[in-house]
């Protein structure tokens, strides 16, 4: 997609958009080194402080690493992100979640179909969630179907909040086609996001998405 106007139209219609090459290879090398440092630090701790995210030595995510990592803090406050999101959110923005995700080849890593809106609680804390919140994801390594990347259902955000039954926690359940069929959604409409390092994905809190195993 060329041109920010087209990007915002695509986001409004399909519930997601992709910005190619927002961060350069040189920047990605520094960011990747910072991520590796956080990973080593987390593994050295040897336990998780949030619902057992460290399973048998496999680290799957870290929340708010930018609290004490200057490189990652600079990424989350990068002016390019603010300029990109301002037309969607306005100029007064706050980040409410900041995290890293890892997927070890052949390891655990599935995320069930869900909407991020389910985690934005209580409802009273968010006004017009669909218009006031945007999820972003920066690819640090190649991100595609074989590596267990993000899967989405384009346009599903238009349905608003959905009453989805998930067997267990989102990050401990597989992305089942039956879960989509239960919502009247054809699994053939699923799109796998293909992101190169440095690409940024944006998606609505009501967009149905999931991810699979890193093969």
Question: Can you tell me about this structure?
Answer:
The chain has 215 residues and is of the alpha+beta class. The protein is 27% helix and 16% strand. The strands form 4 sheets. A 4-stranded antiparallel sheet has the order 6-11-8-9, with no helix packed on it. The protein has a 3-stranded antiparallel sheet with strand order 1-10-7. Strands 2-3 form a two-stranded antiparallel sheet. A hairpin with a 2-residue loop joins strand 2 and strand 3 (58-59). The protein starts with a helix and ends with a strand. The model has no long low-confidence stretch (mean pLDDT 89).
How would you classify the helix and strand content by structural class? alpha+beta
Distance between the termini: 28 Å
Instruction: Give the tally of β-strands.
Output: 11
* Rough outline: globular
- SSE succession: HEHEEEHHEEHEEHEEE
In the predicted model, the low-confidence regions spanning at least 5 consecutive residues are none
Q: From the alpha carbons, calculate the radius of gyration and give it in angstroms.
A: 17 Å
What strand order characterises the main sheet?
6-11-8-9
Helix tally?
6
Strand portion, in percent? 15-25%
Oligomer: single chain
Mean pLDDT: 89
> What's the helical proportion of residues?
25-40%
The largest β sheet comes out as: 4 strands, antiparallel
């Amino acid at each position: 997609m060329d041109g920010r106007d087209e990007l915002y139209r695509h986001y409004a219609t399909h519930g997601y958009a992709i910005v190619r090459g927002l961060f350069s290879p040189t920047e990605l090398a520094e960011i990747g080194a910072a991520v590796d440092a956080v990973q080593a630090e987390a593994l050295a701790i040897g336990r998780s402080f949030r619902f057992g995210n460290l399973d048998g030595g496999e680290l799957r995510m870290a929340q708010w690493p930018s609290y004490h990592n200057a490189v990652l803090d600079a990424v989350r406050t990068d002016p390019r992100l603010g300029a990109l999101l301002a037309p969607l959110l306005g100029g007064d923005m706050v980040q409410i979640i900041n995290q890293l995700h890892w997927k070890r080849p052949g390891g655990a890593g599935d995320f069930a179909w869900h909407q991020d809106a389910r985690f934005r609680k209580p409802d009273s804390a968010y006004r017009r969630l669909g218009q006031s919140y945007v999820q972003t994801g920066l690819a640090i390594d190649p991100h595609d179907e074989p590596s267990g990347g993000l899967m989405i259902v384009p346009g599903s955000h238009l349905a608003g909040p959905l009453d989805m039954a998930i067997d267990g926690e989102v990050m401990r359940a597989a992305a089942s086609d039956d879960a989509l069929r239960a919502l009247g959604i054809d699994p053939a409409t699923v799109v796998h996001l293909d992101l190169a390092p440095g690409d940024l994905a944006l998606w609505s809190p009501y967009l149905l998405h999931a991810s699979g195993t890193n093969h």
